[in-house]
Design brief:
Mean pLDDT: 85
Strand content: 5-15%
Low-confidence stretches: 125-135
Distance between the termini: 21 Å
Largest sheet: 5 strands, mixed
Shape: globular
Helix content: 40-55%
Radius of gyration: 21 Å
Number of strands: 7
Number of helices: 18
Strand order of the largest sheet: 3-4-7-5-6
């Protein structure tokens, strides 16, 4: 069932509502009806600086689809969002030295523009997915923080095309060796995906993923600018700390790491604050570094045990445990069961 409480959270930057209205106007339609569903006038939306709730954005999306009669409207929205539309995140991505750095920017700061999803980047690992087995890939995973309900495909399609378009702009060439996995069955309009993204598109995956061969990641970006990147990254970091959502920020940093999780001091240095400031700000958010780290490890442990074939020893190492005994003991504390019991129970339900 949809999480109505989560739908009430401010999670979507108003730029994307403005862009959707622009798409409607580009089709010769009056955006007034859609804005009425959003609960704003055009003037109010133009001046809006705070994040919109998911419920607001959902009403806008449903009305826009109704007005256009297009189920694939989410695909059309992605290319409209030029780099500048993504604020300092887009500026930092465009100024990156290579695609690897651009992906790091998206993974680290992307949720500041779309907080309804979490981003996780894994680079330099062999990904065992069909024909990709044994090849070196960077994998950007995008996971929904809650149930998107009847606009799920629209939202994920928009995120997919937005990121793909941004990366192609940065690379200066079509990413025809990219692979895109989507966590839903092929929709009736699946044949039009090739108009919006190059590369291979697959459906029915466990989560949304964008995979790029590592050799492509190391190619210099045509839009690289060292000083502009440094400036945009500073602005991204400043926005993170000013938003009052430090616990979420720390969680996303930890989700982007495997095995070698940073110490509190290391993380504070990455965030350009002192350890004392980090502790104090987390306390104001009602959290602590250790609690967040424990939660990230727990979430990942469950996902690895239930969704992947990785050996338990490997999972323990990925989560930063020196041996499986400690990992097993922690699993008992978290789930009341050993890693082997969790995996067997999950296999029995399939």
């Amino acid at each position: 069932m949809p999480d109505l409480a989560a739908w009430a959270e401010p999670v979507v930057h108003p730029t994307y509502a403005r862009l959707l209205c622009a798409v409607l106007r580009g089709r010769g339609l009056d955006a007034g009806e859609a804005l009425a569903a959003l609960g704003m006038t055009a003037a109010q939306l133009a001046k809006e600086n705070g994040l919109l709730t998911f419920a607001q954005m959902r009403r806008l999306i449903l009305k826009a689809v109704e007005l256009t009669g297009s189920q694939s409207l989410g695909l059309e929205l992605g290319p409209v969002a030029q780099a500048a539309a993504h604020g300092p995140v887009g500026s930092a991505a465009v100024a990156s030295g290579d695609l690897a750095q651009a992906l790091e920017v998206i993974a680290r700061y992307g949720a500041e523009r779309m907080a309804a999803v979490d981003f996780h980047l894994a680079v330099g690992q062999a990904v065992s997915l069909g024909k990709a087995a044994g090849r070196n890939y960077a994998v950007l995973s995008i996971r929904e923080r809650f149930d998107f309900g009847d606009v799920r495909i629209f939202v994920l399609e928009t995120i997919l095309v937005t990121i793909a378009s941004l990366l192609e702009t940065i690379a200066g060439l079509p990413l025809d060796r990219a692979e895109y996995s989507l966590p839903y069955p092929a929709p009736a309009w699946a044949d039009v995906y090739c108009r919006f993204v190059k590369g291979k598109v697959g459906f029915g995956a466990s989560s949304m993923q964008i995979r790029l061969p590592r050799d492509l990641l190391e190619a210099a970006c045509v839009t690289a600018d060292v000083s502009a990147f440094a400036s945009a990254q500073r602005e991204c970091e400043r926005a993170l700390l000013e938003d009052g959502r430090l616990a979420q920020i720390v969680r996303r940093h930890l989700l982007g790491r495997e095995g070698g999780y940073p110490s509190l001091a290391d993380l504070a240095r990455d965030l350009n604050v002192s350890p004392r400031t980090l502790i104090r700000k987390l306390k104001l958010d009602g959290a602590s570094f250790q609690e967040i780290l424990d939660g990230v490890r727990k979430e990942r442990a469950e996902w690895y045990l239930r969704e992947t074939p990785h050996p338990i020893e490997e999972i323990a190492a990925r989560l930063g445990y020196a041996d499986t005994t400690n990992f097993s003991r922690t699993c008992r504390r978290w789930f009341g069961a050993t890693p082997g019991e969790i995996r067997r129970a999950s296999s029995a339900r399939r």
